[in-house]
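Exercise 3.2. Students should predict the tertiary structure of the chain below and write it as structure tokens, then compare their answer with the key that follows.

Predict this chain's 3D structure.
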Amino acid sequence: MTDIGKFLIPQNATVLDAMSAIDTGAKGIVFVCSDKKIVAVITDGDIRRYIIRGGDLS
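Answer key:
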């Protein structure tokens, strides 16, 4: 059984936090949560495109 907690990050997490969570979960996806609700989904492809466009990692 998979621990869902490793796929969850808080809304104030950095891009590096998201990358770390994606690496830990090894599924290419994380869920951004606020007040116990999912408010966004981030994939490794989203981060890759963000970096290519010159996005800040912090």
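Discussion points: The radius of gyration is 11 Å. The chain has one domain: 4-52.
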